[in-house]
């Protein structure tokens, strides 16, 4: 990006943050409108008692639904409940992409860009918390409030990371290691996503042959399964809380990493090693160490963000069992970080051997 002074950085960040918020709000509002017209009004026919009271099309309910959608898109929580469906992140991802598309296309991601991302994230966070404050209240008998210090911080971090991920996907990047990170994210998620979609189709066809239901399952579950498969490629499995783990064991279901066939685990690990070595090969020789550090840090932070965003905690269901599942956050950062450095050393050794053979 071109050089900005402080006022220009603030102005650019304000513009991007405001654009992204307006776009996100507009899309979420339309979805909320459809939900309230086609779904919530008809719930009155099925719900009885206190849950059926005050259900119907009202502007206040549309705003509340909009607030819920926008907060779920950045994985904010209302109380203990966290529904980490990665598909929701498409809202702010698409909005930030459009808001800063022209500048990213020309300049990519550089040092000044990080300051603009920070200002834009701050603007987006303040506006989202304002909508959360306006939209707090009762939704289908459940008290909803996304206003908290935790959600304030999380919104800022998630919106900042979204902009970093978008910025990495442009050719005009000047920071060593960013291109390698871009290749790593694209290839690893592409491969794991393909595996995840095949797994969903294979599993869904055993339950239903309805193509619409299968498509809905792919749209909602494929992003999460894509992330879980990616972590399995690194040797990290899904952690379940003790109650859910016992229930799965009772049903003779082993969804842990160690429960997978050894051949599948080896195959996934070979895929990860191959993709990582290819990404490392994209780092410039003259800036290899610095590029490797940037690559390892950016990709590990991306993995950490994906691990957090795909965590599902439904709390105590009907007083019987707590449902909590997801990827261990420490492993999500350390495994790829250490693995990239080890494979970086291996790549350097391979290059030296090749040079010796050539000479």
TrEMBL record:
Q: What keywords is this UniProt entry annotated with?
A: Membrane, Transmembrane, Transmembrane helix
Enumerate the transmembrane spans.
20-40, 55-74, 81-99, 114-135, 147-168, 183-205, 212-238, 258-281, 288-308, 328-350
Which portions of this protein are annotated as coiled-coil regions?
none
- Keyword Protein biosynthesis attributed: no
The protein in question is named Uncharacterized protein
What's the source species for this entry? Petrocella atlantisensis
